[in-house]
Amino acid sequence: MANANPVKRQIAMVLDLNKCIGCQTCTIACKKLWNKDTGTGYAYWNNVETLPGAGYPRGWGESGGRTPDGGVKAGRIPTLDDDYGRAWTFNHDEVRKRAGEGEGKPWLRPNEKPHWGANWDEDRGAGEYPQDNHYFYLPRLCNHCTHPACLDACPRHAIEKRDEDGIVLVDQDRCHGYRFCVEACPYKKVYFDPLRQVSTKCIFCLPRIEEGVAPACARQCPGRLRFVGYLDDEAGPIWKLVHKHRVALPLHPEFELGPNVFYVMPMSPPKLDAQGRPTDEPRIPTRYLVSLFGERVPEVLATLEAERAKRRSGEPSELMDLLIAYDWNQNFALGPRKREVL
Amino acid sequence: MRRKVSLIAAPTGMSPGGYVPVAYVGRDAPRTPVVELETSKSGSLWRVELVWACAQEPRALADDVDRFTDAAAVLAPSVADAPWLTMGAPGKSVEGALWRADREPLFGVSAQGLGTVTRAAAPAGWRASAEWKSGRWRLLFELEGWALLEAQRKLAIAVWQGAQNDRGGLKSVSSGWLEIAA
User: Fold this and answer.
1) Which of these, A104, A204, B65, B135, is most buried using a 10 Å CB contact count?
2) Which residues, numbered 62 to 81 in chain B, qualify as contacts with chain A under a Cβ-Cβ cut-off of 8 Å?
3) Span B151-182, pLDDT tens digits
């Protein structure tokens, strides 16, 4: 593994999926800040997808990453037409020119009939109404992995993992656009800009981090579901959620890359039986969550249930108070230059 | 004098990083097995013509993220024993010209070992013209005052077939330096 040496510190993010409403504010905050170039019209460093679903790009996770013994798994590059979906263009000019024509005026519509795109399968989910229909939202960004597949894949040494915070960056001056990084990343969070002929990816809002400000996706989240800080900061939310309460798990740990974005998995109401009575089974199948977050899922769900019950009965729960985010400032621990959230 | 040069697949096992040597293990067959080479010199102007089979008609790539361009490069060593397959070594650089079907103008390239290639604008007086016709590329480099070739009279060739996903170290190369007569 090319990046076997740990960094001095690792910045990380925890996302509480119980609070994500799929509003895409994070997606837009990121897109408007970093990805307005024509060549990255299709690219979302941050996206929110509906699960169960095919995701964005379609079928991500099916190629690249590692085998259980740490070996390389060959990947593939998604296509714009079938996997990402091209950025839509609209008939704005036609609509504008014929705006006053009454009933015959055209609707605003895509210029070409789209057949896939980011969040194409929004809110579809799975199951049968009313017994067990279910879905939840999964916001995704680069995991700034401990052992990044993208870094290992680049023959140009154009990708680095910063020693001071573990943020993974593409040096676009060195990048020659070979796209082995796109192939190798199983999360498919490296994007190729065909106009500039370079790879691009989430930089964890590095200029903001260096000023003690949380990334735009986290800071703009209306649901306050994102936590940002350092994994080794025992006073911060990341250490508490990942190591102390052990309720935040990485996505697809079986890829063996050591993701540093963690998720508090979604709890769900019970399935109904044929007579419409609640059963003991959750609507979101636990085996499905295990397929995403690994074998510790049942333990985490039990912890969340127990802590929620404590809070309901009036007992204190540090975990629930933290997840509820009564004090939003506790979501972000980016000292020593941390700025207060106003 | 025109001659046929057999190419080999650049060994993927030598590629820097842990991914390419494993993901592309067994990619041993050159996507461009043969190239026709003709060199000539007029004053200080070197002409290097390459002709090779390329079944796929070139297409614009600006709207795609999973397609690669056809390309070719010629290199010369700075010293006689500069290794070719590794594109030179520290202190034993190689340099030359890189043509890509999807862009103009020509790149000037130099390297001192695998993963060290730098691309820059080609020297003034260097240019290339290319035509794809009936499944063949015909590419003419015109390289004014190429000092390394003049001094070493050795040349190496690399060809990338974009439709075969060639890029970077996935390429067909001459098996060593080719002796060039003026």
Assistant:
1) A204
2) 62-66
3) 999 999 999 999 999 999 999 999 999 999 86
Which residues of chain A have a CB within 8 Å of the CB of B168?
155-156, 176, 178, 180
Closest CA to A118 of A181, A250, A30: A30
| Phi, then psi, of A304 in degrees rounded to 5 | -65, -45
Q: What is the pTM of this model?
A: 0.94
Assess contact for B86 and B113: CB atoms under 8 A: yes
Residue B176 touches partner A, C-beta closer than 8 Å: no
A149·B19 Cβ contact <8 A? yes
Cis (ω within 30 of 0) for the bond into A57?
yes
Condensed to tens digits (0 to 9), the pLDDT of residues B107-132 reads 999 999 999 999 999 999 999 999 99
Provide the residue type at A209 as one letter: I
Which residues of A are less than 8 Å from B22 in CB distance?
A: 71-72, 74
Say how far apart CA A179 and CA A153 lie, in whole Å.
Answer: 9
* Contact between residue A73 and residue A186 where contact means Cβ atoms under 8 Å apart: yes
Question: What ipTM was reported for this prediction?
Answer: 0.96
Whether chain B has a CB inside 8 Å of the CB on A153: the answer is yes
B153 by Cβ neighbours in 10 Å (0-12 / 13-18 / 19+) ranks as middle
The token pair at A34 is 């970093």
Closest-CA residue of chain B to A150: B19
Question: Does residue A191 sit at the B interface (CB-CB below 8 Å)?
Answer: yes
Nearest to A194 among B63, B114, B117 (CB): B63
Q: What span, in angstroms and rounded, lies between the C-alpha atoms of A31 and A205?
A: 12
